[in-house]
UniProtKB/TrEMBL annotation, chains A, B:
InterPro entries: HAD-like_sf, HAD-SF_hydro_IIA, HAD_sf, LHPP/HDHD2. Residues 1-20 form the signal peptide. The gene is Lhpp. NCBIfam families: HAD-SF-IIA-hyp3. GO terms for cellular component: cytosol; nucleus. This is Phospholysine phosphohistidine inorganic pyrophosphate phosphatase. SUPFAM superfamilies: HAD-like (SSF56784). One of its GO terms (molecular function) is phosphatase activity. It catalyses: diphosphate + H2O = 2 phosphate + H(+). Keywords: Cytoplasm, Hydrolase, Magnesium, Metal-binding, Nucleus, Signal. It is found in: Cytoplasm; Nucleus.
Amino acid sequence: AMAGWGWARAVRGLLLDVSGVLYDSGADGGVPIAGSAEAVRRIKASGLKLQLCTNETQATRESFVRKLRAMGFDISVAQVTAPAPAACRLLSQRGLRPHLLVHDDLIPEFAEIDKTNPNCVVLGDAAENFTYANLNEAFRLLIGMEKPVLISLGKGRYYKETDGLKLDVGAYMKALEYACDIQAEVVGKPAKRFFESALAELGVPPEQAVMIGDDIVSDVGGAQQCGMRAVQVRTGKYRPSDENHPEVKPDAYVNNLAEAVDIILQQL
Amino acid sequence: AMAGWGWARAVRGLLLDVSGVLYDSGADGGVPIAGSAEAVRRIKASGLKLQLCTNETQATRESFVRKLRAMGFDISVAQVTAPAPAACRLLSQRGLRPHLLVHDDLIPEFAEIDKTNPNCVVLGDAAENFTYANLNEAFRLLIGMEKPVLISLGKGRYYKETDGLKLDVGAYMKALEYACDIQAEVVGKPAKRFFESALAELGVPPEQAVMIGDDIVSDVGGAQQCGMRAVQVRTGKYRPSDENHPEVKPDAYVNNLAEAVDIILQQL
């Protein structure tokens, strides 16, 4: 057994981040990370439970899963926990009518939600929709509200696409927070409530679950705050300086998902 | 004499904010605020010193002054203290070579500065240049630097144009600060060094100067921290809620610049 992995004997379910763990995203659709599709098959074959826990907001879960399946990942829609459905539940519960500043391809997730006469703004990774005009529009709506409500689908700093690093939704969230002097409500990793939803869908308690991700704060820090173990992969947005993070220390590092699955399966 | 204005007897020089005090800016070039051009003439005629202290970064001082003169303001280039020339001094002193994310019309201010192989980013109110692609480019340059240096020309939250409120440079500064986990250096109001430059150009000590502006934080708070008196006008971006600001309290409120000048001249 690998030193430092004794805790893995208790693991009954895996939560996997997607971008940077299963594949590297990009304008071209993305490229699978070597060994990850086979690793997903080995998890299923082992009888361990599996749930994807993603802050992906550039597509509906349906089209996201189609893309993953086309890349060779044996995944179903029910195995994906993503921010937009969680945001829809929150909007319905609180009677909020959103103005959406999100990626065009995410809009169908909000089909059932009343968007007339908005009383909040929902911010996702809008990518090319992060225009000066769209940001000003979202700002004007917020500043015009008696009590501005900004719901942000994640708060990532940046992510890596095949053509380079891109600013993530968190940067634009900070811009609107500062301009309006407000605090956004984050739906998605690292929010505790979001990890709890993912665990409920995974069907195991936190002490029997491990999160595997490339983001030291959103994946590793968020999961650990819910009582889960968390492993950082050295793929995707991983940077060597993450290993000196002042606050977050993963339970283990691996070179990639395949290595994590190898080691976990050896412990069982 | 007006109650609460006794301090105005000591005033020998006025620092004026421009947008929201002399005129309301807009895509159409802007509209003078009623009485402000006459107020500037009265200041000159009184023998009081006058300097404009602006965070304007959408034009060179030369073209800015041309615009003001066309609107009827009797102002010279030497009477304008603006962030870009201050930033150029700082860049030269520290051997910094900027990547510029600024308004096209500001670029000539940096004509003498070496911009090859950038080792810092200078951020201004880039307006339509705040595109997703340009923000990603500035971010990638910063995150790629061993020690990222971000110089921001002001840190305003938003400003008012004739067609509505617009996000100001401070919002984009916060986005890049968050994405890179850095602190920007602010050149412009409310930085103390910037007000000190303006006072030096005005030629009076802080206790004999008054700042007149529409921004409770950048104009009023910044000037007061330099030992000056500060008056807020109820024009431009002024909002009634400013009068309950938790930290900043102006020495006086006026409806507009004309009223401020009326009262100050009455005290002399």
